[in-house]
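Run: sequence + zinc ion -> complex structure.
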Amino acid sequence: MPETLLRGADVVVTMDDAGTELARADILIRDGVIAAVGQGLATTGTVHDMAGCVVTPGLINTHHHLYQSLTRAVPGAQDALLFGWLRTLYPIWARFGPEEMFSSALTGLVELALSGCTLTSDHLYLYPNGARLDDTIAAATEVGLRFHPTRGSMSIGESAGGLPPDSLVEAESKILKDSIRVIDAFHDPRPGAMVRVGLAPCSPFSVSRELMRDTALLARDKGVMLHTHLAENDEDVAYSLARFGCRPGQYAEDLGWTGADVWHAHCVKLDAGEIDLFARSRTGISHCPCSNCRLGSGIAPVRRMRDAGVNVGLGVDGSASNDSGNLISEARQAMLLSRVAYGADSMSARAALRLATRGGAAVLGRDDLGQITVGKRADLAVWDVSGIDSAGSWDAAALVLAGPTHVRDLFVEGRQVVAQGRMTTVETGALAARQRRLALALAG
Ligand SMILES: [Zn+2]
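>> structure
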């Protein structure tokens, strides 16, 4: 691949260990990797003028349900707590098939890309009417984002005391078999990987103890990561105490669900002992502030988690509980929500941006991503700060405090996915029209 030079950025926010920010700096990209960062760099390849722009590492989203991009703002699910929200949406999701999964994934991925995201994970835990994980991987390949899809699952239906309807749950033997299939077909453990597969039972209240344990054993055998929802709200903790006789952290630990290869979404209700457990075991957390606000779940103690040494990344969560999928706005929300509970000095704008970059890279086990330093992959977000939403700003922290909330350009593995605010890979007008048509058909 020929070289690409990003020349003369107002500020390059490197997110290196020291938090270095470089003024009027260049970034040279070669073969998808950052080859040099500094001033006065030259190339015979393509040159992009970065005057008036701040460049950051591409943002990393650690929790999503891309399929939910087709169920935003559903009446009946707009004002409910988690369990009631789920019960309203399950019958709608049961009518999805491969086309709904693919179109929704495209929509969610484009939305993320335009908000600065270069890597997202996805948690797909229902497979109605022939839908497969493959549908979402095809969408990510088309959009050009780095992708960590997880093969999710639900196996305990209503008749067995679980929350989902029986029609949406799968046999555990089938879940494990398909998990092996998608790992063997798509998982790439190498540095620079564009696709890494993980395993992700939906939550302790929708699968059995045996499936949690067997999934952990399979993941370790295959060398892939583990993901689920944990301690999301008071109902979730109450269910754990009533059904399992222990708190969620204990349940996770007992079944092999702690370690550097595990990350849990939400963790709003972790107590001090559980935070200590996560720090000791290097278990990661995906913090989803907008979703936690939307569902009234509570305020995750992120500052305490970070002070204890827990790896924390950000997640937009699915669009049925956000209902937006804008990752730079999610960083702002993380900062604001932390301050509501723990004070104005509990999370700086730069700390929020760090959660969205280095934090996400640590949670997803990607030491090849999350910072603009030589040798890391060239995943870069370019923010035009010459517009009205940044006018009058004094500092690069304005990116989180003020705006913009959409990128000018986005590079993934050195390939330009967004140019001048437009997708280079997907025709967004036609996509939005298709998504509207599918939503109307579901509502009808
Ligand atoms: Zn979720």
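>> summary
Residues 111 and 166 are 32 Å apart (CA to CA). Residues 63, 65, 123, 229, 265, 317-318 surround zinc ion (CB under 6 Å).
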